[in-house]
Design brief:
disordered N terminus, 55% strand, globular, 10% helix
């Protein structure tokens, strides 16, 4: 079996030849159009380069990174298909911190990978590595879990579409990912679970107005001691000083919601706003909820789109599991603000993304300090092989 380092090099060599394949496809697309339509598969790729830095008390780090992503779909027949999204990240970094979390280490990961059975566009069942991006709301409004994660399990969808509206009912039965050594547990642990049921809606009453909303229920069960121990330094309240025997002070069973609205002022200018929230019914009243809001303009000049957003948020200690939330805003027990910038140059097939976020601990716990993060990247659009 290839080691992780050799896997990354094999992936890199493969990606270096991808542009040549893409260029050849463009040159021969008109000659092979009938063949292309008959192919049961579709493959796409993109890459990104950028920089990131953070500071928290005496901890700080900075990194340059490159990222390669693949998206592959294979249609077995009219109702069964496979979808895979692997990704390779390469970091060159300098980090000094109290806890080793491996954030700026080169790695291969599976963004998403599942086998699905579907009936037209009405119903679908997916099984495999399920992406959690559908719970992240519009941009950042989802607070229950990081949208960049994927958990193994099963997902069911029922979607109803109309001329101006779309509604999707989604349920998930997943296993939250973690890795536990024998020294980090007292005995064999039960299989953990993360279950959600949610309703997602989209409505466009007129061409100039777009509305989106999401509401749902979530629950975590039987989380490992290792996850509780790691979550203690990320904002959760936990009993136990070492990983074996560490337990959350509350369970996790609650509700989440988000909303998004955009209105066009002129053909070139629109304004938007988003609002999201979460509440954990099994936590104490002072540690159970979170909210986020963001507003900004959207500019469209020909094939160029520019989006700027400013927002604020808070996420109390036990609103959700800190280990699985977004590190870009400091996990839980945080209140802060952020600025996002997206410049999409559609004709040139790339976009620029930048972000600044800062957050303070809501309650002083000795481990969390004032957190700041700066992030910028240039990312290509997906291109077909």
């Amino acid at each position: 079996m290839l080691g992780s380092g050799r896997k990354i090099w094999v992936f890199s060599i493969f990606m270096l030849f991808a542009p040549a394949c893409y260029g050849q496809n463009l040159a021969t697309s008109s000659l092979n159009s009938d063949v292309e339509r008959a192919k049961p598969w579709m493959a796409q790729w993109k890459f990104a380069m950028g920089g990131i830095s953070f500071s928290e008390g005496q901890d700080e780090g900075a990194a340059a990174f490159s990222k390669f992503s693949l998206k592959f779909d294979y249609k077995f027949n009219t109702w069964i298909r496979a979808h895979i999204e692997p990704e390779a990240e390469f970091f060159s970094s300098r980090v000094q911190e109290r806890y080793d979390n491996g954030t700026y280490e080169s790695k291969l990961r599976m963004k998403e990978g599942y086998l699905s059975a579907h009936y037209e566009e009405l119903a679908e069942v997916r099984g495999g590595a399920i992406s959690l991006k559908d719970l992240s709301g519009e941009d950042r409004a989802g607070m229950v879990v990081s949208g960049g994660r994927s958990f193994p399990g099963v997902q069911e969808r029922v979607t109803v579409k109309g001329k101006k509206a779309q509604v999707m009912l989604m349920a998930q039965q997943l296993v939250p990912t973690s890795y536990t050594l024998n020294t980090e547990r007292d005995n064999q642990e039960k299989l953990p679970s993360f279950n959600t049921e949610s309703l997602h809606g989209k409505y466009t009453p007129i061409e100039q107005i777009e509305l989106k909303a999401m509401v749902g229920h979530y629950s975590y069960r039987q989380l490992p001691d290792k996850v509780a121990f790691e979550s203690a330094r990320l904002g959760n309240r936990v009993n136990g000083e070492v990983a074996p025997g560490a337990q959350f002070k509350s369970g996790f069973d609650g509700y989440f919601w988000s909303g998004y609205a955009k209105g066009e002022i002129t053909p070139s200018v629109a304004v938007f706003g988003e609002l999201g929230g979460i509440v954990n019914n099994e936590a104490d009243a002072s540690d159970r909820d979170g909210q986020l809001w963001g507003i900004g303009p959207e500019f469209n000049f020909g094939s160029t789109q520019i989006i700027v957003e400013y927002g604020q948020f808070y996420l109390e200690s036990d609103a959700t599991v800190a280990y699985y939330t977004s590190s870009s805003t400091g996990n839980t027990n945080r209140e802060g603000q952020f600025v996002n910038l997206i410049a999409d140059f559609k004709e040139s097939n790339f976009k620029l993304l930048a972000q600044w976020a800062t957050a303070e601990p809501i309650i002083s716990n000795g481990t969390q300090k004032t957190f700041n993060e700066y992030f910028i990247k240039v990312e290509s659009h997906y291109a077909s092989f």
